[in-house]
Amino acid sequence: MLTDRGILIHATRDADGLIEVIDDAAGTRSLYFGTRARQSSMRLTDPLALQLSYTRTMLAALLFQPQPQHILLVGLGGGSLVRFLHGHFPEAFLDCIESRPAVVDLARRFFQLPRHDRLDIQVGDGAGFLETCPTAQYDLILIDAFDGDGIHPSVCPPAFFSACRRALAPGGVVSTNLWASPDAALKAILANMTAGFDHQILRLPVEKRANIITLALDRSYTRRELQALRPRAQALEHHLQLDLPKQLRSLVHHNSGLVRRFLDLRTA
Fold first, then answer.
1. So where are the chain's domains?
2. At what angle do helices 244-254 and 256-267 cross, to 10 degrees?
3. Which sign does the torsion angle of CA 65, 70, 73, 76 carry?
4. Are strands 146-147 and 93-98 parallel, antiparallel or unpaired?
5. Distances from the Cα of 131 to the Cαs of 73, 181, 199, 201, in angstroms?
6. Do 240 and 55 form a contact (C-beta atoms < 8 A)?
7. What is the model's pLDDT at position 223?
8. What's phi and psi for 241, nearest 5 deg?
9. Nearest in space to 75 (alpha carbons), one of 51, 103, 113, 48
10. What are phi and psi of 219, to 5 degrees?
11. Could you list the active site residues?
12. Distances (CA, A) of 57 to 51, 100, 176, 204, 244
């Protein structure tokens, strides 16, 4: 069926609403949750490539943890981050928690979600999973939990971020995809994140989008320490084809006040 967004490949409904799979004229397959906002996209000729800019920005977390061995993803969508990380980090083990069984089914049928013993996909509540998972389990936690109305409420309370902190291994990073509108809701989530995690949180706006990525770290970084990550950013760019040097510059620029505040606390 032809729509103004492309060819409708599949549509279904579950308890949470409409789910659509649409192919556009550029050769991109996208997942929609009953609105015009793309939840996930895959280039049909290059399934590992990250089509949406917010997914590339979320992986700025690799600047701080370049060799994750255990990765947790809260929210699956079409599986863009799962495909990328599974393909580029062949030694890593991935756990993914998705609340909607229909989304898991469509990711497998239409988005080339890999099946492998290094990848465990579970249907359930991400907050509940984190409450019961072992302490210091994950090097990298990626939170991209949206429904048709925006950020899923289960990943917003302080207790959720406290659970993330407990599950994070030393040197690990929690990367969270947030939506900048409405502003009041974003402020509340950021306040909860700060209260729950109680460590440095860096903000990274997604260029030309309303998404904001937050990186929660297990220690604070000075401006000099961030700038010292340039060689790592360049090496990762070559290996992963991600513009991490640009992401690093953006991190320094958008968090200069926060970095200075932590430097003052260190030297006080």
1. 48-267
2. 70
3. positive
4. unpaired
5. 15, 28, 19, 21
6. no
7. 87
8. 60, 40
9. 103
10. -160, 170
11. 144
12. 11, 25, 10, 8, 8
- Taking every pair of Cα atoms in the chain, the longest distance, rounded to a whole number of angstroms, is 65
Residues 6+ apart with CB under 8 A from 242: 50, 56, 59, 62, 236
Q: Are 145 and 126 in contact (CB under 8 A)?
A: yes
3-state helix, strand, coil in the chain (%, to 5): 40, 30, 30
Give the pTM: 0.92
173-188 b/e (C-beta count within 10 Å ≥ 16 → b): bbbbbbbeeeeeebee
3-state secondary structure of 11: strand
Instruction: Determine the pLDDT at residue 264.
Output: 45
> Taking the CB of residue 219, how many other CB atoms lie within 10 A of it?
11
| Cis peptide upstream of residue 101 (ω within 30 degrees of 0) | no
- Give the pLDDT confidence score for residue 113 in this predicted structure: 96
107-156 residue pLDDT tens: 999 999 999 999 999 999 998 999 999 999 999 999 998 766 667 767 77
**Nearest 5°: phi and psi at 199?**
-140, 180
List, in order, residues 6 or more apart from 213 with CB less than 8 Å away: 54, 57, 58, 60, 175, 176, 177, 178, 203, 204, 205, 206
**CA–CA gap between residue 170 and residue 218 (Å, rounded):** 7
> Among residues 18, 132, 23, 7, which one has the least CA distance to residue 72?
132
Please, which residues bridge with residue 203 across strands?
214
Residue 2 confidence (pLDDT) = 86
What class is the 48-267 domain?
alpha beta
* Better-predicted residue by pLDDT, 66 or 181: 66
Range of lowest pLDDT (42-46, 129-133, 174-178, 256-260) = 256-260
